[in-house]
Amino acid sequence: MKKFKWEIKGNGNINLVILNGWGFNSEIWFFIIKKLCPYFKLHLIDLPGIGRNKKLIPTNIQQIIEVLNFCMPNNSIYLGWSLGGLIATNFALLYPNKILGLINVASSPCFIKKKNWPGIEKKKLYCFYRDLVQKNHDTINNFLFSQIFQEKKHLKDLNVLTNKLFQSHEKPNQHAIKKGLEMLLTVDLRSQLPMIRMPFLRIYGSLDTLVPKKISNLTNVISNNSSSVIINQAGHIPFISHKEEFCSILLEFFRKI
After folding, report:
1. Quick one: pLDDT at residue 106?
2. Cα 108 to Cα 106: distance, rounded to the nearest angstrom
3. 3-state DSSP of the chain
4. Which end of the chain has fewer surrounding CB within 10 Å, N or C?
C-alpha cells in the first residue's frame, strides 16, 4: 500500500505505534498526545478508508498488519484502542521480534458475546454499524458523550475533541466501516494469547459495556504473561475521561520495559 500515510509526533527515542478504534481517526488521541510527546516518537495511524488514508481501499486485518510491518519501525511499542487493540495483538502474534511491548485499551481478543464469554451482542453491533454509515457525526458525538457519563467537567474537552475529529468534515469510507465490522465479528485470538511473550498490558474501564471488566479476569487466565488495570468510573474511552491516570499507567508500564 504505497500511499499509506501516518503522522509522527514527539521527541522521544522510543517508537510508540498508536491504533484507533472502529470508525475513528487518530485525533481521538488528541489530549494524551500532548502528554506523551516528551517521552516518545508517536506514530499515529489512520486505518485504510479513514482520516488521512480515507482514499485508500479498506482491507482485511492480515493486509493491515502487512502494511504496518512494512511501514513501522522495528523495536516499537504498539498501543491499540478497541478494534486497534485487536490489530495490535494480531501484529504481536505474527511479528514478535519487531515489537517491544503491547498495550490494549478497552479491547478484547474476542469482541462478540459467546458461551462463557462476555461481549457485544451481534444485533447491537449491526445497529451501531448502520448508525455509523447513515449518521456518522451524530453517532460518534452521541457515543463520546455517553462514555463520559454526562459529567460536566468533561464537556469542554469533549467539544474540543469533536471539533478535532470532524475538522476535515469527511466521513470515513463506508467500506472501511464495513471492514471494521467484519473484523469485530470474526476475529477471535483467545486461543493464541498464550503465545504472546513480550510485556503485555491491558487497560479497562470499570463501566465499559462494550468490553466488560469481566474480560480482564478471563484474559488473565488465558494470558498469564500479561497484566491488567481497571480504571474506576471509566467507560470505553478512559484516555479521555481519565487522562492523567491513563498516562500514569502507561508511563509506569514503559519504565518497566
Report:
1. 98
2. 7
3. CCCCCEEEECCCCEEEEEECCCCCCHHHHHHHHHHHCCCEEEEEECCCCCHHHCCCCCCCHHHHHHHHHHHCCCCEEEEEECHHHHHHHHHHHHCHHHEEEEEEECCCCCCECECCECCECHHHHHHHHHHHHHCHHHHHHHHHHHHCCCCHHHHHHHHHHHHHHCCCCCCCCHHHHHHHHHHHHHCCCHHHHHHCCCCEEEEEECCCCCCCCHHHHHHHHHCCCEEEEEECCCCCCHHHHCHHHHHHHHHHHHHHC
4. C
Q: Among 209, 59, 7, which Cα is nearest to 128's?
A: 209
Catalytic residues: 82, 208, 236
pLDDT-derived band at 1, boundaries 50, 70, 90: low
Look at the block and give the residue holding cell 494469547.
193
Provide the terminal-to-terminal Cα distance of the chain, rounded to the nearest Å: 32
Residue with cell 478484547: 108
The 10s digit of each residue's pLDDT in 72-86 is 999 999 999 999 999
- CA distances (Å), origin 182, targets 10, 106, 177, 235, 240: 33, 19, 9, 23, 27
Per-residue pLDDT tens digits for 143-173? 998 887 656 677 888 888 888 888 865 678 8
**Measuring CA to CA, which residue among 148, 138, 163 is closest to residue 236?**
148
Provide, rounded to the nearest whole percent, the portion of the chain with pLDDT above 90. Answer: 82
Section 213-237 average pLDDT? 94
CB of 140 closer than 8 Å to CB of 24: yes
Q: How far are the Cα atoms of 37, 126, 209 from residue 114, in angstroms, in the given order?
A: 39, 16, 15
